[in-house]
UniProtKB/TrEMBL annotation, chains A, B:
Positions of the HTH marR-type domain: 38-171
Compositionally biased region (Basic and acidic residues): 1-25
Keyword terms: DNA-binding
Residues covered by region (Disordered): 1-28
Any Pfam family matching the protein: MarR
Gene3D superfamilies (UniProt xref): Winged helix-like DNA-binding domain superfamily/Winged helix DNA-binding domain (1.10.10.10)
InterPro entries (UniProt xref): HTH_MarR-typ, MarR/SlyA-like, WH-like_DNA-bd_sf, WH_DNA-bd_sf
Protein name as annotated: DNA-binding MarR family transcriptional regulator
Top-rank taxon: Bacteria
GO biological process: response to stress
MF terms (GO), sorted A to Z: DNA binding; DNA-binding transcription factor activity
Length: 173, 173
DNA sequence: TATTGTTATACTCTATAACTATA
DNA sequence: TATAGTTATAGAGTATAACAATA
């Protein structure tokens, strides 16, 4: 099984270097200094992203949806009638890599490929009824478990400010 | 060549779906709606992280340092005399995966493994003179090209607020 | 000739088990 | 017995080239 493995993936936690020490002789077991590293935006950004994805996977474990799969379902729901190239490209997924992803979602009866009548090369993407139901449940889980926890941690206004700045980086950097 | 390839890696840009369309018949070529996706912190976080790493690689192309390699050099400089397990663990790198990374840095004469006299199982890590010089140049490039551009985009105080919130997520989420 | 979906393939990252040499 | 470094390996994620069907 491929998806359940994913949920176990982010196990290696940082800053645990000083744990498994034999404090027999001289207990020189001091935590390392991060120094300038904690000021590097890229470093902190990556760490935060891993934490957020890790929490997302935990919240979604009952539905077995990864962040990437969730984003595909959201985008197909919002843009019915688009083909694989359009959906994949919008998400920054390369067309060849999108095939296996769709195979997975389609095999679970969450979405379907429909040969376009206008252009018989294209596969139009739609959510199945089950796909719509699962996505609805996923949205609720994300809102009540995942995003809610972020609100608790940062506060509503800070969370919005964070989103604004990240979007600015993603779009203009 | 392994490192130069890395600099070419982040080519797939999102939201370009509507480019290669044949606007002959009905130009129904409309950009897709991101919808709720643009409110998902995980999605925006990931996109921003990719952009920041991409820019980092460009700024560092003359030194051929990846974000991960830069973080190792920074941490070894700040914590001389620590062994591989401690450095790797602090960075969230698994010990087996750290071996090839160190092989690379050592083959480029940027750092060195020294067998510890206290515990002959351990390899103490230190920067070579060349490693110190390269790191100094890397810091300057990061400050003047990379972080400076983030300051231009966000403003100094916003950039600090962003860093604070991301650190909070990385440490407490 | 160009584009859509697809296959094959390769490279990087990340993860686990097991070996060796030391302790 | 346990730990540090290492090897081997496997799985995701991401990248490119090329093919068949269709335009």
């Amino acid at each position: 099984m491929t998806v359940s493995k994913t949920a176990e993936k982010f196990s290696e936690k940082p800053a645990d270097a000083a744990k498994g020490r034999k404090d027999a002789g001289e207990p020189q077991t001091e935590a390392l200094q991060l120094g300038e590293l904690s000021e590097q935006l890229g470093y902190v950004l990556k760490r935060a992203q891993l934490k957020v994805f890790e929490n997302f996977l935990r919240c979604m474990s009952s539905l077995q949806l990864t962040p990437a799969q969730f984003s595909v379902l959201l985008l197909v729901e919002k843009n019915p009638g688009r083909n694989q190239t359009e959906i994949a490209s919008t998400l920054g997924i390369l067309r060849p890599n999108f095939v296996a992803m769709l195979d997975n979602l389609e095999s679970r009866d969450l979405c379907a490929r429909i040969r376009s009548t206008n252009d018989r090369r294209s596969h139009i993407l739609v959510l199945t009824d089950k796909g719509k139901a699962v996505l609805a449940r996923a949205k609720k889980l994300v809102a009540t478990k995942h995003e809610a926890r972020l609100n608790d941690l940062l506060g509503q206004s800070n969370r919005e400010a964070l989103l604004t700045m990240l979007a600015k980086i993603a779009n203009e950097f």
